[in-house]
Prior knowledge:
alpha/beta, Rossmann fold, 5-stranded parallel sheet, 18 helices, about 50% helix, globular, binds 5-phosphoarabinonic acid
Amino acid sequence: MIDLKFDYINALDVIDQQDVIDFQKQINTHYKSLKxxxxxxxxxxxWAELPNEINEELITKIEELAEEIRIKSRIFVVxxxxxxxxxxxxxxxxxxxxxxxxxQNDGNPIILYAGQNISEDYTAELLKVLDDYDYSxxxxxxxxxxxxxxxxxxxxxxxxxxxxxKLDARDRIIAITDKERGALKQLAxxxxxxxxxxxxxVGGRYSVLTPVxxxxxxxxxxxxxxxxxxxxxxxxxxxxxxxIADNPVSAYxxxxxxxxxxxxxxxxxxxxxxxxFYLTEWWKQLYGESEGKENKGIFPAGVGFTTDLHSMGxxxxxxxxxxxxxVISVEKPKRKLKVPVDSKNLDGLxxxxxxxxxxxxxxxxxGTTLAHVDGExxxxxxxxxxxxxNTLGQLVYFYEMACAISGYILxxxxxxxxxxxxxxKNMFALLGKPGFEKETEEIYNRLSSEK
Length: 451
Ligand code: PA5
């Protein structure tokens, strides 16, 4: 039984239930084409079967290696960008103590990230930190040629080798990459690094249930079997019924498209738990890269409440009426904390003294939802009983499947990302990459004519 629930009752001021139900026939067709591999991007459907296909041998290998890393490393650096970064970070941050980096005695390595930007300050400061700690790293790149992680890996590899010597450094590097192609695979083979494979038919943003996500999550000290178990639960549920009334994936995909058809072109994912910040970042990539093409697609945005009620709240309440919200609601926190009584009561808070913070947070959520609905912002709600490996596994599979179905409803290929090449072409031309001579000349002519 899945624990995740979805409801769209607070969207019914803007759409009718029938608008949602009208998608049923289309949705059935799209499940069928995903199953049979007849839709757009059908050479990238491996993610759909992943939860059942991760075998015991692979899980054990990941767990054993994670244990080795945990013993010898105070820090574990995850090098990657986009789909080779966000999934692991989303799950690790959601499960970690909010102040894990200060918590030196919990036995877990601190997970740091590199290669998700090209900032000189960020990378230099990271190297400085690594001078003082034992560390290992994983370099994750399916293509093996992505500029950002390649630069970071070059620097960290040099750092690791000068710190531990070439031989020891080798045992602290794990490469996660394509089976055959790519520079990283060649380097890993030549240097003798441990490697894991990203399956050919799984795109980066759908890869968190491969070693791309599973190794860092296991090194951080979390239970990858439970995580996979949650994904299996959701997969089995989705396969048991496609009915919008019973299947949250179908309902979410249908509702967001019904809203899109009414001019709601921006979806804001809302959390009330700061630990979910990176889950929203992962979701933004998944939906943005999958749907934003051919001049179509819902723009994925994210806010953290109540923090952003004091910044973005104004816009959401009264700005352009093209937004809807999807709240990820967590029913139960892990810890207990009550508002204390104060004899002076100068802040006037005694009326909530004795209440748990979660109750106050929950009332903020309910009050905000109603205010936004009154401000013509439809509100969808995904709720989970608590944040743990299993519910996160359910959420991941829920979001991935809904993304594929929703992309098919939009009639785009949800598994490619042709648009991300444009910036790369310009950057390579500006940097004078061999093979880009013509583009280099063109871009410098363009820049000088703009002066
Ligand atoms: O989802 C995607 O395909 C992208 O975000 C990639 O994951 C990202 O560009 C990194 O690619 P690679 O793993 O090849 O380095």
